[in-house]
Design goal:
The complex is a heterodimer. By secondary structure, chain A is an alpha/beta fold. In chain A, 52% of the residues lie in helices and 10% in strands. In chain A, the strands form 4 sheets. Chain A has a 5-stranded mixed sheet with strand order 5-7-6-8-9. Chain B is globular. Chain B is of the alpha+beta class. A 7-stranded antiparallel sheet of chain B has the order 15-12-14-13-17-18-16, with helices on both faces. In chain B, strands 5-6-10-8-9 form a 5-stranded antiparallel sheet. In chain B, strands 1-2-4-3 form a 4-stranded mixed sheet. The chains are: A alpha/beta, B alpha+beta.
Chain lengths: 417, 463
Amino acid sequence: MAKEGKKSSTLDEVIKELYLCNKCGFCQTACKVYKTDLNESFSARGRVQLIKGVAEGRLPVDEGFRDAVNSCLLCQECAVACPSGVKPHELVLAARRYMQQTEGLPLDKKIILGTLADPFRRKVAFSTARFLRNNVSNRIEGFNELKGIDVRGMPIDKVGFIDQVPELNKAQASKGRVGFFVGCFINHSLAKTGHAIVKVLNKNAIDVVVPKKQLCCGTPQNAYGDFELAKKNARKNIRLFKDLDAVVTGCGSCGAMLKKEYLHLFADEPEFLPEVEAFAQKIFDFSAYVMHEIKLDPEKFKVFNHKVTYHDGCHMARGLKITKEPREILKSIPRIEYVELREADRCCGAAGLFQSYFYEIAKDISRQKVQNIENTGADIIVTGCPACVHRIQGSLRLAGKEQKVVHLADLLAEAYQ
Amino acid sequence: MLTQAVIKDLTAIVGSKNIITNQAGLAAYGYDATLMSQRPVGIVFPRSTEDASALVKYANRAGLVMVPRGAGTNLSGGSLPVENSLVICVSRMTRILEIDPKNFTATVEVGLVNFDLQEELEKHGYYYPPDPASYKASTLGGNIAECSGGPRCFKYGVTRDYILGLEVVLPSGKVIEVGGKNFKSEFRYDLTRLLVGSEGTLGLVTKAILRILPKPFAKRTMLAIYNKVEDASLTVADIVAAGIIPTTLEMMDNLLINTADEHVKLGLPRDAGALLIIEVDGYEVDLDNQVRLIEELCNKADVRSFKVATSQAEADQLWLARRTVIGSVGRRRPSYSLQDVTIPRSTFPQMVDAILACSRRYDLPIGILAHAGDGNFHPLVLFDERDADEVVRVHKAEVDLIRDALALGGTMSGEHGIGVLKKEYLDLEFTDVAIEAFRKVKRSFDPTAMLNRGKIVDIAAEG
């Protein structure tokens, strides 16, 4: 049901920023969804103007509005392009928050976000998905994809990474110690990447602590406006890593959430904020940690005869602002041929739940990524985000391509062999 | 509101994915880059000339006024919907039909974004000279409708100079082709040049044959910084008087230097009165001499610093600052009124003085941006649309700026067009007889004003 003209504090808080947009339209080129669908409601400018309409009571929250707001990738490209300094993704978050508060989340989203936030339910969900995939969908001839997602090829680990390793993973001659924030994707579907991160750190004399009780970082809940649930987990995560001086992440989205978004999330709790700031300070993306804190020795790498390119995840590039480190590391590996990918830092089409709710647009975006990869001639695509690994690998596989997509840690672990 | 029957008929033409009738969608197509807004009753996306022709024929039968639209970045309200109108948005007609370097032409569908064409041409070593500041977002269709200019105009001319042929759906729905691939074609009458800049009031352009050029062998991009805006304007007059034709000669004043630098973070001196971005292109051997001459003229006008960009990246950053400067003023005040008055080049310093006086007269910040080589000014009057008193003063300032330009022998619109924004000032520049001639042109194409009604001139609908 449409709710006409209802104002709320969430949108009132951003009204000033809504007025900053002078509708020049320069964000259109930065908005991958717009460039693919070419519909103004699905552009950054369109979303900002519609949110302004709702905030001023001129527009109802209806299906068209929800679609406009939910079709945002939160890739933050528009914010970089905006001459006026508008941050459309933050306005989209405020609008999603407003919808969550005024009409609640739709049931499917509520279940998904709640499941991801709860370790037990999450474990059951991934096991069930694995069971169904292995025993049902894989037995159906021709059932390869679901809404553009590579169901057959998607790895799901039988036992999550966190349950596969001890809490303390000691290096041979230990010189330091870090915590490892694993994240849902590495835990349940890229355990090998989890092991690779531990291996690379151990090889460089760093002990790795994997706290068993760590929870989802909160990205999915935050993205759809359920700040309470995101905060609940965030608070626990912050306390869980309290005694560690450095925490490594292997996912751009988790990293940006822990390092940047937690500060927004707790902006209204000044008494807790210092603790959040201290936590944010010690978060390192894997690439930044190995490059700046332990300084890899390329002498120890084996010769690596591959043509490699790099895809920046959105949250890695614009959330954490990490773009140089992975490239530098890759180029330091002997004999590797590094080629730059066109539109390397543009969304691959995954964007969390976007890929299933707007799968036709997502498929188109992924198709562009696959084409750009083809044009490089690379046989290995490296990235720092597990969600991108799955999306790009799946899209390549569904297109019948042979290229392999790996996490930076996977490649480094192999280089150490 | 469209009836279900009309929606069904339109859907039959374009398919369900190419029609929008929900409230949010209508609101999203109810604005352009001006402050005005008016929701349409529907938006349709033709995918081909056949679609467009069928839509126009149907809209005529259904009595729906049509508003052509591309990316909606225009600055005069030309693509703004009118009451009870159907937006025909060409944004999904983006194919490049041919790039023909041997004949220096490219044939495109008009929903293609200017920048996307440039990227494709680059692969062939070519480019398309008209480059409005909005070129990353604006469509070629929009550029054609407004006869867009851009920084390169001084040397290379405007959109009209690069359109060899058009495919046009007339307001009746019939399709005609005008012009062609030939570099010379002396048709009487030259409908191509009449259609370019007609703001979608005479026909809906669907395809265009563009003139493209090989990329210049070499370029030099210079940045001259001045203590006073008057000094910069003296240099402009001197360069023109010396017979030098740079590719571009762009001016930004102190206010705009500050907002642009906040966005692009170039480290421009925030206390400078004005800067000029000067670019020359051509054969490598010719350029150093031109740069030297320009430097001398800058020195003569007390330039504070003069610098030649040492890399393409450095030049690109300067251009990014220039191209995004209009949007960047949002960092000062939420609204702006942007003019595009143009005066004979030699009177450049007088127009600068007039703008400064206008700013003082109405106590409004006015940023001075100019395609200085063309005598084309973009005074940016900054205000807050929620402040009624300011809005009144802005309106007065707009009229004064137009009067000032006309007094210098100039024109009210160099490149943004009349649209609805400047319609009320038309009689300041044109006699009644001239305006009636405009109406006659409109009537001969579109007697019942079905296409982009109420833009440029009003005609009494003779339905």
